[in-house]
Design a protein that fits this description.
Layout: E1 8-12, H1 17-21, H2 25-33, E2 38-43, H3 48-51, E3 59-62, E4 64-65, E5 68-69, H4 72-82, E6 86-89, H5 94-102, E7 107-111, E8 122-124, H6 135-141, H7 162-174, E9 183-187, H8 199-211, E10 215-218, H9 225-234, E11 240-241, H10 248-257, E12 260-264, H11 267-274, E13 279-282, H12 291-294, E14 301-304, H13 330-343
Parallel strand pairs: 1-2, 1-6, 2-3, 6-7, 7-8, 9-10, 9-12, 10-11, 12-13, 13-14
Antiparallel strand pairs: 4-5
Length: 352
């Protein structure tokens, strides 16, 4: 540890759900290394709920208003007003780097591999695109810029309030599910962040699981309503769905109630891992998107990641489509779900 002892530290993570979840362990590590410092988090309003209630987090700043980025000089004025001593930018853009530089923050930690990296005065030289480590480890590596050594990837945790758990129970009751049966949640969307298992495959899986007597619920985020309907139709109407997308922590509370969560590589997958729900996850054979970098941080998981060499279109070359994901068979996924259900059985009824 060096002699620099910042009193006010800002973590910046203004991208998506999974990215924010995998940045949360930075808060506790900073507080442990610098117990007299205050820690703030800059993120977007739609991911704010993920940081709410985090132990050791002193303040949340928002990068947008109603989903629209705050004007540059408004954001700059807010940052200057806070008089931060140090900032760690986990998700760099030229706009963010410029804001941190112009706001006069004395110590600015960021990547050393962008053309605008000179705007950071403590640079960490790691190429995330090589996927040599997990995303959470890359985030923690940036703390070396503050003289804080880290190792491994601590698992994120989320704070689910009792009122959200109560709302989740009420939602499940409204769906008239079998209270004696296990609950499997299927989340077929990824927001374009990865190659996806097809909705028809999710539907076939739902049908098989319902035939085994499992409750199956299909969830999706805003804008994924059509995708959810496709899965329900492909299940022959055997899967249930929500009348509308939920707020982020309401969805988190619902995922917490599930026995298994099945999804493509997407933010809610990391939510499931963080609240202790076993997961089945699908990853494409693309270096920047693989499970080594973006896998769920839990021991209770089964990951399907086809080989690029087996893809009938790409044949081991550069990815040219979604055909590789068709190599993941419904029967194999069903077996994985059932295996997790055997080893991680719910202690309470699904809607109790």
């Amino acid at each position: 540890m060096n002699s620099f002892q910042p009193k006010k530290i800002l973590i910046v993570r203004t991208d998506r759900i999974g990215d924010v979840v995998l940045s949360l362990p930075m808060i506790g590590i900073l507080k442990s290394a610098l117990p007299s410092s205050s820690v703030s988090f800059l993120l977007r309003s739609y991911t704010r709920e993920l940081a709410d209630g985090q132990e050791h987090l002193d303040q949340i700043l928002l990068y947008d208003t109603g989903g629209v980025e705050k004007p540059f000089f408004q954001m700059l004025a807010e940052l200057r007003k806070e008089r931060f001593d140090a900032v760690v930018v986990t998700y760099p853009t030229v706009r963010l780097a410029s804001l941190m530089y112009l706001s006069g923050i004395p110590v600015r930690v960021g990547t050393g591999y962008r053309w605008y990296s000179p705007l950071f005065n403590r640079r960490v030289f790691e190429h995330r695109k090589t996927a040599e480590k997990h995303e959470s480890e890359y985030n923690l590596s940036l703390l070396k810029g503050l003289g804080i050594p880290t190792a491994g990837a601590p698992r994120p945790t989320l704070v689910v309030r009792e009122e959200e758990r109560k709302a989740a129970r009420e939602i499940l009751r409204s769906l008239n599910l079998d209270s004696r049966a296990s609950l499997v949640i299927l989340h077929p969307g990824s927001g374009g962040s990865a190659r996806d298992w097809k909705p028809q495959r999710f539907g076939e899986l739902a049908k098989k699981l319902r035939d085994r007597g499992r409750n199956v619920l299909v969830t999706g985020g805003p804008g994924e309503e059509s995708l959810v309907r496709q899965v329900v139709v492909a299940s022959g109407g055997k899967a249930a769905s929500l009348p509308k997308p939920l707020r982020l922590m309401a969805l988190t509370a619902l995922i917490e109630r599930a026995d298994v969560f099945v999804a493509n590589s997407t933010g809610p997958l990391h939510i499931a891992a963080a609240v202790g729900t076993p997961v089945v996850a699908f990853y494409p054979p693309i270096l920047q998107c693989n499970s080594k970098r973006w896998g769920p941080l839990t021991d209770r998981k089964v990951i399907f990641e086809p080989s690029a060499a087996d893809c009938p279109v790409c044949k081991g070359g550069g990815c040219r489509g979604n055909d590789c994901m068709d190599l993941i068979r419904v029967a194999e996924v069903e077996k994985a779900v059932e295996s997790l259900l055997v080893h991680h059985k719910r202690a309470v009824p699904v809607n109790a």
